Amino acid sequence: MKTIKKYKTLALLLPNKFVDMEVEWSITGMLRQFYTLRECDIVSKVDASKYAINHIPERWHNLIKEAISIREGLNIRYYKSKKQRIEDTIQFMNYILDACNNIEK
């Protein structure tokens, strides 16, 4: 827990560009694994993220849409607070990790 708290503190000091890269890489990458485990297939990170919109609780939709927007080079933002975006990214990564661990194989 100390490591996550330290990471969040450091992440707040990073320029938005670096936070964007981490959000995009982490969210779309984990969703691609989520898709692969559920569907036994491989698709692009964006397609896996769009798939997740229909299979993951609405609470995470803005974060997923923001990751897609960053990946596609759009300038659409769903968060006003960098702190909240970082917090949600960490929470979502834990959520998806649990979801992937609970997929019946």
Q: How would you characterize the overall build of this protein?
A:
With 105 residues, the protein is mainly alpha-helical. It has helices at residues 2-13, 16-39, 45-53, 61-71, 82-101.
Q: What's the multimeric state?
A: single chain
Strand content: under 5%
Query: What profile does the largest beta sheet have?
Result: none
Q: Strand-and-helix sequence, N→C? A: HHHHH
Low-confidence stretches: none
Number of strands: 0
Number of helices: 5
The averaged pLDDT comes out at 92
How far is the N terminus from the C terminus?
30 Å
Please outline the helices and strands.
Elements: H1 2-13, H2 16-39, H3 45-53, H4 61-71, H5 82-101
Helix pairs in contact: 1-5, 2-3, 2-4, 2-5, 3-4
Keywords:
105 residues; mainly alpha; 5 helices; globular
Brief synopsis:
By secondary structure, this protein is mainly alpha-helical.
